[in-house]
Design a protein that fits this description.
Largest sheet: 5 strands, mixed
Order of helices and strands: HEHEEHEEEE
Strand content: 35-45%
CATH architecture: 2-Layer Sandwich
Strand order of the largest sheet: 1-2-3-5-4
Radius of gyration: 26 Å
Number of strands: 7
Distance between the termini: 33 Å
Structural class: alpha+beta
Number of domains: 1
CATH superfamily: Phage minor tail protein U
Helix content: 10-25%
Length: about 170
């Protein structure tokens, strides 16, 4: 099972749109769009950082540990209750499908950070839910040209740095 960050954020976006109908489609795969939304609450889904562990296998693979952020922004009367309710709903939705439908190996909650910011003249609350997502991605294999010609030089004993014999090899091509 291999995945990309784009596939993962799309899967989380779809999961949250289905699980949180009260947000009425204001779930975005963006670190900015939800903050700019004219209607709040809104939710942004994006990657914060990623650690890699290269596996020496054939074909080579990377096991990745993505820190995924799901950021809820809200304002107005009852802002704290809205942030808490939506952060809980986000956590419940993510924990209910820890492989994102088989796309990733596992997902676990890492924490929730709640803060307050200014958006023009109004105060906006933010609850960022962080989750760890483990997945694999195949390493890109470079395209190599066929081995057509090899040049070989020999420095016979005793070695003195001078070329004593030279040959050109043309391997059979399929």
């Amino acid at each position: 099972m291999t995945a990309t960050r784009k596939q993962i954020t799309k899967a989380v976006e779809a999961l949250l749109k289905a699980a949180l109908p009260t947000v009425e489609g204001r779930v975005y795969r963006s670190r900015v769009r939800h903050i700019q939304s004219k209607r709040l609450p809104a939710i942004g889904v994006y990657g914060l950082k990623e650690a890699l562990d290269a596996k020496d296998t054939s074909p080579p693979r990377y096991t990745r540990d993505l820190t995924l952020a799901v950021e809820v922004v809200a304002n107005g009367e009852g802002m704290d209750d809205t942030l808490n309710d939506l952060a809980d709903a986000v956590e419940d939705a993510l924990v209910a499908d820890p492989t994102l439908g088989g796309l990733v190996q596992d997902l676990e909650m890492r924490g929730i950070e709640i803060s307050l910011a200014e958006k023009g003249d109004e105060l906006v609350g933010c609850a960022r839910v962080d989750a760890g997502v483990w997945y694999e991605r195949a390493r890109q294999q470079p395209e190599l040209d066929d081995f057509a010609t090899g040049g070989v030089r020999w420095d016979l004993a005793p070695p003195d740095g001078a070329t004593d014999a030279e040959d050109t090899i043309h391997p059979a091509q399929e």
